[in-house]
Amino acid sequence: MRGWMGKFRSLFLFGTLALILSGCGQENLSALRPKGYGADLIFDLMMISIAIMIFVFIIVMAIYAFVLIRYRQKKGDEDVVPKQVEGNKTLEIIWTVIPIILLLVLAVPTVQATFDLADQSTQGDDGVLTVEVTGNQYWWHFNYQGEEVSTSQELYIPVGERVYLDMKATDVIHSFWLPSIAGKMDTNPGENINTMYLEAYEEGVYWGHCTELCGPSHSLMDFRVIAVSPEKFEQFKEDLRNIDPEAEPETSTAQEGQDLFNNNCMSCHAIGNAPMGVGPNLSNFANRERIAGILDPTQENLTDWILNPDEYKPGNKMPAVFEGEQFADLTKEEKRDQAEKIAEYLLQLDHSDVGVDAPTQSEN
Amino acid sequence: MSHDDVLNPKQLPHDPEKATLEGKNKFLGFWFFLGGETVLFASLFGTYLALNGSTQGENTPEHLFGLELVFIMTMLLLTSSLTSVYAMYHMKNHDFSKMQMWLGITVLLGFAFLGFEIYEFYHYIHEYGFTFRSSAFGSAFYTLVGFHGGHVLFGLLWITSLMIRNQKRGLNLYNAPKFYIASLYWHFIDVVWVFIFTVVYLMGKVG
Amino acid sequence: MSTAAAQKSGFFATLWDYLTTVDHKKIALLYLYTGGFFFLVGGLEAMLIRIQLMKPDNEFLAAGLYNEMITMHGTTMIFLAAMPLIFALMNAVVPLQIGARDVAFPFLNSLGFWLFFFGGVMLNVSWFTGGAPDAGWTNYAPLSTTSPGHGVDYYVMGLQISGAGTLIAGINFLVTIVNMRAPGMTYMRMPLFTWSSFVVSALILFAFPALTVGLFLMMFDRMFGSAFFDVGLGGNVIIWEHLFWIFGHPEVYILILPLFGAFSDIFSTFSKKRLFGYSAMVFATVLIGFLGFMVWAHHMFTVGMGPIANSIFAVATMAIAVPTGIKIFNWLFTMWGGQIRMTSAMLWSVAFIPSFTIGGMTGVMLAAAAADYQYHDTYFVVGHFHYVIVGGVVFGIFAGLHYWWPVMFGKILNEKLGKLAFWPFFVGFHLTFFIQHFLGLMGMPRRYWVFLDGQGLNTGNLISTIGAFLMAIGTIIFLINVIYTAYKEPKCGRDPWNGRTLEWAIPSPPPHYNFVQTPLVRGLDPLWVEKMDGKNEMTAAEPLGDIHMPNGSILPFIMSLGLFIAGFGFIYQVDDSAWLIAVFVGMGITLGSMLTRSLKDDLGHHIHKEELERDIKKGVGK
To answer: Model pTM?
Structure first.
């Protein structure tokens, strides 16, 4: 199938088109700059369909332009009665049959690609990773099946290998979209588990969005997929398995932060491998690309977030802990001070230095 | 055609329900309406079939349904459909009092059916604690069968009010289409019940 | 003093007249005014959405409010603007095109309007009672079933009531077209607008009950504790998606097909040619209508139906491109060899062809199931459906209004202003929506309250917003045109466009019985046939005689009002069972008026021959 499409690509129009379109959009976010198997396959399909459509459009527009220029009523012709043509069998057959042929040309690769992307033949084989993906309002959880590793918001995958995703949701329907690698699939609440797969061609940090309206902060439910070499991925798993959730931080403020965290946050958040909680798992937090999927990873942002999560993600379920009763007698500054300590603690949770070597992430 | 002609019970053609344009319109329009109703019940059946396994482990169809009761209900409704055919037969022969009689029997059978249905629901709720809210199956069951029951009730009120309204003045070109489409509606209700009997009760008990 | 009183009674007399009217021409105006109003409301919502998305991380609207805005924009535009405006055209034109004096069920026609009216009002009341629905116009469960407040309840009740009205209107038009055609008006002589109205009415009949059921299930879940969409009790959220799209996809064709019909009539009239390939056009219309029911799941490719279902629905969807293509080419060849007059109506129609072709093309692209894994729920889809709905439906409504304004008001909309409104709207439309295809592919999902800076989406969104303002300017100029025409333009008299079909054979606007004598139809484009025989009017199929007309009635208004009251009762009985009183009172009013309708004879009235003769002397019928 790939070779068949490769030939198409060599067509002049097709090549130019692909070239123009692939200049579009942010790297690692745009469906027009495929960096993985699924996205690549879909991109080719897209190009075939665009080529066919542009062909049709040109024909329609040519007739259209001719008709409008040639057959405008001229001054003095007001009483002319044109010939009342009933129709033309030949023409009508032509514009019925040709579209059918064009659609068949499109339908065949469509069906092939649809089955290709639904393939689950290697799932469960030795060494093939399956990740259980869970959509929550408004965060993502990833459990690496059989690996005793779990992360939230950021999914690590080995480059060049198929990684299956078994997807569901806990509350409402979400949809997992990773445009530059593989397209999207809904995560449904209930028994219904959907499966798709990712296969990244090169190392990188890829941006993903939620694409099914899921509440006020639907647009803020971003996630990242970090593709690293298989060796580094092994290392990553190893690192995360060895997390000691109780590990004592070095600085004293971070230690105070740890105490505050343990007393106020642990009921929802876990560190290290654990079943999915009410809130995201915070393993390896120091290496997060974003806080809560959207904010730059600075201590100030994290402090602000802890103090008032609803301001940054309206309708999310994380409470503003310091507005609780047990902190009622603290002043505003004291609360901020406390939150800063938690932030400092979290930002030193540097459990794995596995990452993408070259900075592929350009912010503009 | 003047108003007097329309309201005069003396001169009736053979198909009084379709003799006027209004009658023809009602006749055709009601068939279309039944087409829409078919989609409505098809959607309800689809929902029911999707959810009839979602019993949450208790009060399954096999456990709940008793075919004896449902069989009697089916017979009542089927018979009432037949009696409404007799009524329409007499309408075409312009025998108003016989038509009223057969419609009366239809209504009685309909109320008997409805009584059994209410008993059935009452029984499920009080004997088994099986309600509209207990499971998705419960919701789907009561909605499907309840929608049908609602149609039965509406049909009964409709036919009854037609009978009372026209008791004194007899059959004419104005009310003949009304009687006719009411009986069409009644047949439709009967057909839906046949499907409910098969899909809900028989398949629930056997499958 | 006395004149003021007279005016006052004049106002109330007019009001009463419209509240009780069963005349299809007046009902058309009611649909036009209400639909037009809701079009402006929906447009305002659209502008607020575009302002919010003008720049990254914008705080113009709050997140919750934004979701209410997109939900109400979609719902309003589809159900409360596009559909009633289409019904306005259908009511104004279809009975005339088939040579009928009224529709088959004038009473139900009025009931259909009032149900729609109260449903639409109910939906919009939610803005003032604590928040509009916020789960998207598609209202997917369980987001909708768990949405706090009463917004979604208003969605459910409002659409249930107005949906009932639509269903009634659909049945009415079906029967009208089957039973009320003038002698000689065979099916294959019906104008395309009538044909498409017929197909659309059938689509309404078979599509709306699915929505009715979906809304009932939603209502039971939200208000009476059932468990259809509650996965905790074994419910299944995908059922809503299926029911919604079994209705929702035909709905798309319900919107576009009547305008296909309108365009066909307009192209034919302003090219001075009969429609090219008439029978193929009819066939294509029916086929699109039929296929419209086979493809609903293409809205659900990413739901996880599996590759087999996805492939089947993908190929079925692509098949729709064939009849649609046939239509495009037939329109082009209708103009081919004709004498094209570029009136405003024609300008909108001509602009429709490229716009809709692009929309159709992206439609085929979306049909490719695998590729839809990228497009789905992104701005690509937003771009696509606005290309078909604005480029097709809205352009068609503008074209139809320009074309049939004489039938409705006896005047031609000012042509200069008409063209002046067209250009900013047309340019703005392409500016707004073309770029959205690219935004989608570049990673912007649909229904996003904010997009973040640094994702390469800024320029595209700004362009889109600028385009939206141009569209707003075009709409405002059109409104100015309507007012200007009402005050300044002269009456246009009969047949201002050199028309071909029966609506132009009678005075514009028509007398309330439409045809003094039922016309005899002798071919396709009946008026044109007579014109070619050197006559300028139809041959009568009957001698001059008394005309039977239906009586007006206030009952449709009261019935709908009852449901409106009961709707509030249903919504608020969740909070306080005292509201059940409203349910009983409202349902009592509705059922009571139904009973009244059933028991009280309504035989209509006659317009006597003498009266008609007097009218003819005054010039009616010439």
So the answer is: 0.94
